[in-house]
Amino acid sequence: MAKIDEINRRRSTYGIQDLGGEPGRQIDNTVGERRRVVLHAPDPDLVCMDEEKNRILENLLDGSRKETTIAKRVFNEARAKFGHPVWIDVSQQYSAVDLLGDILSEVTKLNVKKLEQMTRAEYEAMLYQTMGAKKYLIVMDDVWDTDVWRMLNPHLPDAQNGSRVLITSLSVEVARSADTCTPPYELRFLTEE
């Protein structure tokens, strides 16, 4: 009980809110908005990571590699080399239909009204057809659940054209479940400096 009380006290100290236990709960809007802002943050905000960025870019652009697991600043530098560059925020609470719709809206530029009229099966078919036409880079940011990749993977064709999917996650299990043949890329800790 003392440990639970301590955790609860720390939660209050650090401003961590209870997200609830229901399956349909929504992530705090403030957190979601902060994540959207980070996508457009200027590059100088990245501290002491040039070496990691270069190693990640090297892995990403290496045509001999099948797939690889990576991060954000790389997306901004690599996006011009892909016909369909897409960044989606996944987070703890996600909807499969919303993820499919988010990707489709980026690559097809269909308006929201048209997308809302489509069924999940139509999303899946259109995504597969559209993604096969060009080399794509999809970054799935903040993935917490191994099912996210299993749900999206069948609808992303491997056209052997250098397309890539990058998954950012705090969970090594999530990274390993996406590709058992490629070891996850784990960032080193920052130095005191």
UniProtKB/TrEMBL annotation:
Lineage: Eukaryota, Viridiplantae, Streptophyta, Embryophyta, Tracheophyta
Annotated source species: Spirodela intermedia (Intermediate duckweed)
Coiled-coil intervals: none
InterPro entries membership: NB-ARC, P-loop_NTPase
GO MF entries: ADP binding
Name of this chain's protein: NB-ARC domain-containing protein
The NB-ARC domain, residue ranges: 68-193
